[in-house]
Write a structure and sequence with these properties.
The protein is of the alpha/beta class. The chain has 16 helices and eight strands. The protein has three domains: about 180 residues, P-loop containing nucleotide triphosphate hydrolases (Rossmann fold); about 80 residues, Helicase, Ruva Protein, domain 3 (Orthogonal Bundle), CATH 1.10.8; about 110 residues, Arc Repressor Mutant, subunit A (Orthogonal Bundle), CATH 1.10.10. The strands form two sheets. The chain has a five-stranded parallel sheet, with helices on both faces. It has a three-stranded antiparallel sheet with strand order 6-8-7. It binds a DNA duplex (22 and 22 nucleotides) through helix 4, helix 15 and strand 8.
DNA sequence: CATCCACTGGAATACCGGGTTC
DNA sequence: GAACCCGGTATTCCAGTGGATG
């Protein structure tokens, strides 16, 4: 590489022309001290959880709301307030345990996280696999008893956990309070999906959902206030056009009132402006940022796909290409997929599995798919690409292993016109 | 209303990482 | 430390099902 005398990081560490405050205020994980338009929610949640300060078990709570409506922020905020309040009350014993069920979505993992959360500093961590579940459960139970305080378990994206692994862990955690009086467990669930409770056993449901809160999407002016607040933290308020901020808020409001998205857009707009050595963020910077964000999301999701999913996507792209944007059915893309896998010396998955992969790709928004029935002639799943086939191909082919497919063309077999 | 294709749910299998037992 | 137990994950295997059309 270059051997310039400059330090590699020099050009990155220069003071920004735009960001004069905390840059983290524009990052996804940032928890501000103020929560514009969520003050009441934070207060209510604090009220619900307040018995814990007096060593009583608070009601279990579920918070519902679409992505980016401040659920996690409110919870994190209230958590930190509880921690602060605890310091002035020596009589309260509270343990806060955060579990992201998007990452940990199986019973073992959840129990493990609770157990590890209750670990005394000198204790060894629990094994992350190997133990029978009941043994793990019993150790966790012991730890709850030993702690003899209020253990608040926050289950972010709890709907994912339930959809994947059922409600058995929830049942176990809830049961702790019936098995012992030394130490209480309080569950706080956060869910994107209003209907996930349908998957719950009625007994779990009634005990888990003692309180519910529903957070509504933000409207444009609320998002504007949030952006304004963040831009103050980040010290960029002077560098951004009023109308750019409004545009940013309006764009995000259109998409389900997702404040996270608005902040992402703002952050990218800042980065673009810095790269362009410009000093002001204007309307068009926001539009650029929006495009970049969308591109990045597609690249990110496609490039992290498992090999076979990529192959399936690639097959659909190829067919899309030769059909000039047409959709393809299971017969077509499965056939092609098998040939491609064969050519790479990989054994192809069964059609059953590919059907599931189609479902996954559809959930990710990369393709659209639906089952079509042709009556007497059976039925099939048809898939349509949501992005241009050339772009999709490029992204898939950027995979190390898949680069060798650059020259692959689908054999021009009989492709029935739909 | 039978028919046809493949969709679909669930059980079965294989494999992995890691603890436990003797 | 070999053999076995345990739970998780990925995939296959199999049988039952769906639904428009002819």
């Amino acid at each position: 590489m270059g051997s310039s005398s400059k330090n590699l990081f020099e050009k990155f560490s220069n003071d920004s022309l735009i960001v004069k405050g905390q840059r983290q205020a524009l990052e996804p994980g940032f928890i501000p001290e103020r929560l514009p338009h969520r003050e009441k929610e934070a207060e209510l949640l604090a009220e619900i959880l307040s018995p814990s300060l007096k060593n009583y078990k608070p009601s279990n709570v579920i918070i519902f709301g679409k992505p980016g409506v401040g659920k996690t922020s409110v919870v994190k905020f209230v958590e930190s307030e509880i921690s602060k309040a605890m310091q002035s009350r020596l009589d309260s014993k509270i343990k806060l345990i955060d579990i992201n069920c998007g990452v940990v979505d199986n019973p073992y993992g959840v129990l493990l996280a609770v157990g590890d959360g209750l670990l005394e500093s000198w204790e060894e961590k629990l094994p992350f696999t190997g133990w029978p579940l009941d043994k793990l459960y019993n150790t966790v139970l012991e730890k709850v008893k030993n702690f003899a305080g209020i253990t608040i378990v926050v289950l972010d994206e709890i709907d994912k956990l339930v959809k994947k692994s059922g409600d058995s862990v929830l049942y176990q955690l809830l049961r702790i309070n019936e098995v012992t009086n030394e130490g209480r467990v309080c569950l706080l669930g956060i869910s994107n999906d209003l209907r996930f409770t349908e998957y719950l056993d009625p007994r779990v449901k009634s005990r888990l959902i003692e309180e519910t809160m529903v957070y509504n999407p933000y409207n444009a002016s609320q998002i504007y206030d949030i952006l304004r607040d963040r831009s103050l933290y980040a010290g960029i308020a002077d560098s951004i056009d009023e109308s750019a901020m409004k545009t940013c808020a309006a764009l995000a409001a259109q998409e389900h009132g997702d404040a996270r998205r608005a902040i992402d857009m703002l952050r990218i707009a800042v980065e673009l402006t810095e790269k362009g050595n410009s000093k002001r963020i204007e309307d068009n910077t926001i539009y650029e940022a929006k495009n970049k964000l969308e591109r990045d999301v597609v690249v990110e999701t496609v490039s992290t796909l498992p090999l076979h999913s990529k192959l399936v996507l690639f097959s659909i792209s190829l067919i899309d290409e030769i059909k000039n944007g047409g959709s393809s059915n299971m017969g077509e893309f499965y056939d092609l997929y098998e040939r491609i896998a064969d050519r790479m010396g990989i054994s192809g998955l069964t059609q059953r599995r590919v059907a599931d992969i189609i479902g996954e790709l559809t959930n990710l928004g990369l393709i659209d798919s639906k089952v079509q029935s042709f009556g007497r002639y059976g039925r099939t799943t048809t898939a349509t690409l949501n992005y241009s086939s050339s772009r999709m191909k490029d992204i898939v082919l950027s995979d190390e292993v898949l680069g060798q497919l650059k020259d692959v063309k689908p054999l021009q077999k009989s492709l029935p016109v739909s």
